[in-house]
Amino acid sequence: MRYKALFYLTKYKSVNDAVQFYLQIISEALTGRSNFKVSENLKEAKTADIIVTYFVKDYFFARILHPRSTIINWFQGILPEESYLWQKNKLRYYMYSFMEWFCLSTSDYNFFVSKAMLGHYQRKYNYKGNKYFIMPCFNAHLKDNFGMKVDRPSFVYIGSLSKWQCLDKTLELFKEINKHIPTATLEILTNKQKEARQLLKKYEIVNASVNYVPLKELSEYLVKFKYGFLIREDININNVATPNKLCTYMASGVIPVYSDVIESFKTHLEGVKHKIALANQFELEEANHQIIEFEKSKIIDYSELHSDYAKPFNIFYNKDRYVNNIRLALKELGKKGKV
User: Fold this and answer.
1) pTM of the model
2) Alpha-carbon distance 15 to 22, whole Å?
3) Which CATH class is domain 5-136+318-335?
């Protein structure tokens, strides 16, 4: 069954390429098309079978103005906790918590990015709903082969300069690595290029550069790198997340160097051999030791690495699987008279 879906996103211009990829999967499952119609107002809501929201604030107003409409919300992160981390504003925290609770209590269907996120809502709000679908954030397909890769100590970081992305710790770590492996290089891929260069200057890192690459070109560009950084602090915001950059790295044969604080990765990367999982509590010396030992001890067979990474891509990062399963889930919802 195909539905007429309205994507009500008041801040759509601010969403990144990865968010669009996630919304495209939802759109394909609902409408049969990956291209989706975005609206910053609710004038067309009455003619839509389903309204899809991404921000709990958008959901709140959509539900108030259209109480009988079928509305689905995607929870990418735990907004109250994220907002408090950035702004330390308790009023905003409680306001967003109320909106989050309201959304969980009244939405017709929810998308969560991990089982850990579901568990967070069950503990915080005593959420007992069963109308939800769990799909991680991802934005890439596994390349057909890694035969074009070269085995050299090249590192890459993709992302913003937000404090929770831990770029400062990443640079401190790379600086230590560079002392033991002088040929190691680092490239930072970000749209905040000026600020990133200032950070390289602050940490006196020489073997590094800054660039920005659009998502559509990223897969080919990443092929030249061996390792990709994904360092996070052990806090609930990160515990429930599924950063799409892990998928982005692995899709191009880039070995992830990541903090083992993301609950979903502990499960779905359990059998993957080509990875460097750092301790929950980041220790510079220990992390440096792990990376240097991995680099010294392993000669990478990229055919073997491709087979290794095919496992999570067959299940955890399988777009077609999610499209089909979402359709089945919403078909069952429709039988209950909700769609």
Assistant:
1) 0.92
2) 11
3) alpha beta
